[in-house]
Design a protein that fits this description.
With 305 residues, this protein is mainly α. α3 packs antiparallel against α4 and α5 packs antiparallel against α6.
Length: 305
């Protein structure tokens, strides 16, 4: 199995082949008074682009995110479990396979050398970088998840079972990877979070109301899942089993978010988005999880009626 350094070199070679291509940026509207999706993009260092070669764009974005993840792990340490690293590696390899169609996906692709369970060793700047990069990685995987769900819907409507199964399996892999990405984003000390990271998400550093809920990729995913609910209720075996696995992974992603939130005091205080609310950040996430999973269950009951 390749070492982390060898993987990083391979990713770097792929980026070299692509070349230093720039894409026209989409300019956000100025003079916002409260944080919105554009503010969230700016905070996470995400540049939205418009280009006819969408395959080129998603390939470079995926490789850049993978490269940043590997570099950070090799230099800053990690306390993620082997399974969490395996989920991250498998998610990126699966997404790159979807893009290139030139390499089989390997499940549980973990490398023990990089996943030794050591604690992260980061200064304040390193923690901020990991926080931002972790969210960036999460959103790249969410974009891949959106692609996989669109592929599933297309294959299902065309009656192509094998492609439908593959697309749902990929969606589950990417959801597992996004859970691990959330853990990675918060892989540092709560003291450093309170001292250096949390203030970067508060005025005057950003507009008031900054929150991950503002991410347009996540919002698009939720809208897509809502639109596909009638379809999910019509599934028969073996698609039903793959769908159930995806829903379970979806719930685990919320649990991962809750754990990261609790790690940084979210079990006792509200989120930055609702600073005056009575419920804690963890309670808010549990409410959102319950609502999303209930929506899946309702779609099943309606379809089966």
């Amino acid at each position: 199995m390749a070492s982390p350094e060898e993987i990083l070199q391979a990713v770097g070679r792929s980026l070299t082949i692509i070349g230093d291509v720039s894409f026209p940026a989409i300019k956000p509207p100025p003079n916002n008074q409260i944080a919105d999706a554009d503010s969230h993009d700016e905070y996470c260092r995400i540049k939205r682009v418009v280009d006819t070669d969408t395959l080129h764009v998603i390939t470079k974005a995926t490789l850049c995110a993978y490269e940043a993840l590997l570099k950070d792990a090799l230099t800053g340490g990690s306390s993620l479990t082997p399974k969490q690293w395996g989920d991250l590696h498998t998610a990126f390899r699966s997404l790159l396979h979807l893009i290139g169609q030139n390499e089989p996906v390997t499940k549980n692709w973990a490398n023990q050398k990089i996943m030794n369970g050591s604690h992260s060793v980061l200064d304040d700047r390193g923690a901020i970088r990991r926080w931002v990069q972790g969210h960036h990685v999460f959103l790249i995987l969410i974009q891949g998840l959106i692609i996989s769900l669109n592929c599933f819907e297309s294959a299902f409507n065309d009656g192509v079972l094998e492609e439908s199964l593959s697309a749902l399996e990929l969606a589950t892999v990417l959801m597992d990877g996004s859970s691990a990405a959330l853990h990675r984003a918060g892989d540092f000390s709560p003291l450093v979070y309170d001292k250096s990271v949390r203030p970067t998400m508060m005025p005057p550093n950003v507009l008031p109301g900054m929150s991950g809920i503002l991410a347009r990729d996540h919002r698009h995913l939720i809208q897509l899942l809502h639109s596909q609910r009638p379809l999910y209720g019509t599934l028969e075996p073996p698609l039903r089993q793959k769908y159930d696995e995806f829903v379970a992974a979806f719930g685990c992603a919320y649990e991962a978010h809750k754990l990261v939130c609790a790690h940084f005091g979210g079990g006792e205080r509200p989120s930055l988005l609702n600073e005056k609310a009575q419920q804690s950040g963890v309670e808010l996430l549990e409410e959102l999880k319950h609502s999303r999973l209930k929506g899946f269950s309702q779609a099943d009951r309606v379809a089966r009626a």
